[in-house]
From TrEMBL:
Coiled coil (residue ranges): none
Protein name: Uncharacterized protein
Family membership: Belongs to the short-chain dehydrogenases/reductases (SDR) family.
Superkingdom to which the source organism belongs: Eukaryota
Length: 258
């Protein structure tokens, strides 16, 4: 059996998302996962809709085993062709998301909601379809999706976002059953509150965000708010744990206990 520390050495891993990284205050969850996988010896390719962001983060990381490709996850045909061009892939991680849906349903902008579903929900489904139809993931490999704890406790301002994330729970377990025929594991990382660049889109200054993260973190059992580096540990588990499939991997600082 390969030692855990060596399981990812030389493996080809594609991370959808991950271009919002070293040049910003709060890197994205995908970026944290990509760097952690790279640190453990994998050859990592990130996919992002922005070639400019890809160029910046690839230059910043400056590692021969780290590169990026531009792709539009909302365009099924072109995105599947991109994934096929990268095959064979040992592990595929989907963390694509470009906005947060929060607020009273009476004030919901359904165009924005549909956009996020197109990225996060249908993007995940496209990855599953590519794995099932075109064998882009090697036997013994894995697909890791990303949801959120709003699926379990949406509160008053996350009915739509919570429903999106809950749908990914069902998708994960359905795909785990379906792709088991190809010996592909499917799991889902379920983060709670995380300080990432997505919060910039909520209209608050960096100073206000920092104060919000500190205040929210002190209310958690662990006593702090996570960054993408903390959440990356869950992706490492999902990719390396050969006996895990259909798992919903909650990593939320104990937030669901409140």
């Amino acid at each position: 059996m390969v030692p855990s520390r060596d399981k990812l050495v030389g493996k080809k891993i594609v991370v959808v998302g991950g271009s919002s990284g070293t040049h910003i205050s709060y890197p994205s969850i995908g970026h944290g996962a990509a760097l952690a996988l790279l640190e453990h010896g994998a050859h990592v390719t990130i996919i992002s809709s922005s070639q400019e962001r890809i160029n910046t983060v690839v230059s910043d990381v400056d590692n021969p085993h780290f590169d990026g490709k531009a792709g539009n996850v909302r365009d099924e045909n072109s995105f599947i062709e991109l994934l096929r061009s990268l095959a064979p892939i040992d592990h595929l991680v989907f963390s694509g998301v470009d906005k947060i849906i929060r607020g009273p349903i009476a004030e919901a902008d359904f165009d924005q909601c549909r956009h996020l579903f197109g990225v996060k929900f249908w993007g995940s489904a496209i990855c599953g379809k590519a794995a099932a139809k075109y064998d882009i993931i090697t036997s013994g490999g894995s697909l890791t999706l990303t949801s959120g704890t709003g699926a379990m406790n949406p509160g008053k301002t996350a009915s739509i976002g919570g429903a999106l994330n809950a749908g990914l729970f069902t998708m994960t377990q359905g795909l785990a059953n379906e792709l088991s025929e190809k010996r592909i594991r499917v799991n889902c990382v379920v983060p709670g509150l995380v300080a990432t660049e997505l919060w910039d889109k909520m209209g608050k200054s960096k100073e206000d965000q920092k104060a919000d993260f500190a205040r929210a973190g002190t209310a958690l059992p662990v006593g702090f708010c996570a960054t993408s580096e903390h959440i990356a540990e869950a992706y490492l588990y999902a990719v390396r744990a050969d006996y895990a499939t259909g798992s919903l991997i909650t990593i939320d600082g104990g937030g669901v206990l409140r």
